[in-house]
Design brief:
Radius of gyration: 26 Å
Structural class: alpha/beta
Shape: globular
Bound molecules: adenosine-5'-triphosphate, zinc ion
Number of strands: 16
Distance between the termini: 22 Å
Number of domains: 3
Strand order of the largest sheet: 3-2-1-4-5-6-8-9
Helix content: 25-40%
Strand content: 15-25%
CATH topology of the largest domain: Rossmann fold
CATH class of the largest domain: Alpha Beta
Number of helices: 18
Length: about 600
């Protein structure tokens, strides 16, 4: 018996859990995905509960902002991989544990089905829907039980997922992503958030992965000699100084062009508002500095100060210089709110744009929270949720998965309880991930390109990672790390073609295969060119994430933002976590079932 003789540290566990469960815990092989807020608490729980064989993976390195709640990390660890430091700190709680740390992205193909098959149980401690969907698919494909979790402020939720037994992460549609009208972002911003989104787009356009940029702006054609002359002047600076060139392009030329378009077409592009004022880099001293001294109190921290126009301009030039150098060394970057250069770029660019459109400028602190989609994190909530994950894992290890419960942590008690629990739902027979593997796509096959199908729909909406597309046994599109240069070029050309040019027309059934997720899906195409809502270009009939709507979602309340429906809608960001609070209907179900039969969080 594992606990006898050699290790007295487990005696109390054997006494409280019983031999059988303790043995199951000792021999289970656990994968923990994410070593952040929930992950740190969970890893500590796992090693203290006697779990022996644990692999952890996290993509990130430790940031100062993690230290208030991710207690396995200290100041001296800043910049080091979370997975490695979490492992070392957890081993101090129990040196007997066998922990393997991976510093990487769970979506990487080396963590595919073969990797997942090794585990008895997977525990998610993630912060984004994209990675959650990916892990869900691999657990469905390999029939590995998964415990999913999320927290947001005081709210939290855990859910157990097992193919064929209970619903998967994608059985119920997720809330629609926040949306903004495309033209508001590109041409007529009215609020700081519009400028921040624009700045993030610009960051990705200049420093991100070009292949993945879907919302590339179509440059407006304008045959105006004055504009052409300005363009030529600015283009000439490009080789000498990219940062100056980019400044003049974004904050002078593009605005100047829009003003000329308005003049030439006699259209009022900014009805009821002031015409934007382009910024001239050489004449910054002529502008009023855009700040009001009373906005900066003496005590406010540097990050909370409102910068002057000159300070924003300097910050922009400096961040671009640094980013250009980094790009030449390390290649394309993703926007990361904890990356100083990236955040400085977005702060400066968004403030400069705000200045142009007479929108109040913001502190770096407030831009960070909006650009990074920051949701409040509370250590206690993470601790409660991490504890519940272990409780549910016991039921799985006792081969009583049917006893597992979905548990919701609420902000205020209802019926005297902060925790509501409910038996897990059965798999949804229409779920395209765990049941039907079939959806219908309505789109205009003469307008939609294969590129939009791949990026916007297969990756963006249907959560795929490396999709390939087959029609009647012909492979139309492939993706993945193993493509050679020639194939990548061919796929790029292929992506620009319209669906109808690729023989995808009304009635075609296309087959999608994603080896990295071991996931297959059939899509039935319905050609349609009259969509009820203007700007809408496709519709997925099935249980995919619903189309963005103009109605307010929870996150949008905070931003006080509504998409205007007279324009093409831009999908900005998926919410960071699934909604921890259940819908009213679901809550009613919880309460009803709870009152009838649940012992909140039972150990059996
Ligand atoms: N695709 C992924 N592969 C591996 N780890 C991931 C992936 N996506 C997210 N993670 C990790 O999941 C963890 C989630 O933790 P948490 O929600 O506390 O977020 P955080 O990034 O640490 O905090 P904050 O967002 O507040 O800065 C993070 O450490 C993050 O790096
Ligand atoms: Zn499902």
């Amino acid at each position: 018996m594992a606990a006898s003789g050699t290790n007295r540290r487990y005696e109390h566990l054997v006494a409280s859990l019983g031999n059988e469960l303790f043995e199951a815990i000792r021999s289970a092989k656990i994968l923990m995905v994410g070593a952040g807020g929930i992950g740190c608490e969970l890893l500590k729980n796992l090693v203290l509960t006697g779990f022996h064989d644990i692999e952890i993976i996290d993509i990130d390195t430790i940031d100062l902002s993690n230290l208030n709640r991710q207690f396995l990390f200290q100041r001296k660890h800043i910049g080091m991989p979370k997975s490695q430091v979490a492992k070392e700190s957890a081993l101090r709680f129990n040196p007997d544990a066998n922990i393997l740390a991976h510093h990487g992205n769970i979506k990487d193909s080396k963590y595919g089905p073969e990797f997942f098959k090794k585990f008895t149980l997977v525990m998610n401690a993630l912060d984004n829907i994209d990675a959650r969907r990916h892990v869900n698919r691999l657990c469905i494909a390999t029939e590995t039980p998964l415990i999913e979790s999320a927290t947001e402020g005081y709210l939290g939720q855990i859910q157990v997922i097992k193919r064929g037994v209970m619903e998967c992460y994608e059985c119920q549609p997720k809330p629609a992503p926040k949306t903004y009208a495309y033209c508001t972002i590109r041409s007529s911003p009215t609020k700081p958030i519009h400028c921040i989104i624009w700045a993030k787009e610009e960051f990705l356009t200049h420093f991100g992965d070009q292949e993945r940029v879907v919302n590339q702006e179509q440059e407006e054609e304008i045959t105006d000699e004055e504009v052409k002359a300005e363009e030529a002047k600015i283009e000439a600076i490009k080789e000498k100084s990219f940062s100056e060139y980019l400044f003049r392009k974004l904050f002078y030329l593009e605005i100047y062009k829009k003003i000329r378009i308005a003049q030439l077409t006699k259209k009022d592009l900014w009805p009821g508002r002031e015409t934007p004022v382009p910024i001239m880099l050489d004449q910054l001293h002529l502008y009023s500095n855009g700040t009001n001294d009373s906005t900066n109190s003496v005590e406010s921290l540097p990050d909370q100060q409102i910068m002057s126009l000159k300070q924003n301009a300097d910050l922009f030039i400096d961040s671009v210089n640094r980013l250009v150098e980094r790009r030449s060394k390390t290649g394309a970057m993703d926007f990361d709110k904890d990356d100083d250069d990236a955040l400085n770029f977005v702060t400066a660019a968004s403030n400069l744009r705000s200045h142009i459109f007479t929108i109040p400028v913001q502190s770096r602190f407030s831009i960070k929270s909006l650009a990074g989609n920051i949701i409040p994190a509370i250590a206690t909530t993470n601790a409660v949720i991490a504890g519940l994950i272990v409780v549910e894992s016991f039921k799985i290890l006792r081969n009583s998965i049917e006893k597992c419960r979905t548990v919701v942590l609420q902000k205020k008690p209802s019926a005297g309880r902060l925790l509501l629990s409910c038996a897990s739902e059965k798999p949804n027979p229409d779920c395209y991930v765990c049941s039907s593997h079939f959806v219908t796509l309505e789109c205009d096959t003469d307008l939609m390109t294969l590129g939009v199908l791949v990026e916007g729909i297969l990756r963006g909406r249907l959560g795929m990672n490396e999709p390939s597309i087959t029609v009647d046994s012909d492979i139309l599109f492939e993706s993945g790390e193993d493509l050679d240069e020639e194939e990548v070029k061919r796929m790029k050309l292929q992506s620009a073609k319209k669906l109808s040019e690729c023989r995808i027309v009304n009635g075609t059934i296309i087959e999608i295969d994603d080896i990295s997720q071991n996931f297959q899906l059939k899509i039935s195409i319905v050609h349609k060119n009259n969509f009820a809502e203007e700007g809408q270009t496709f519709n997925i009939v099935g249980k995919a994430t619903p189309l963005p709507t103009a109605t307010k979602t929870k996150g949008e309340d905070k931003l006080d933002e509504k998409a205007q429906d007279d324009d093409e809608v831009m999908i900005v960001d998926a919410p960071a976590v699934p909604p921890p609070a259940p819908s009213k209907k679901r809550k009613a179900q919880f309460e009803e079932k709870d009152a009838k039969k649940s012992k909140v969080v039972s150990l059996d």
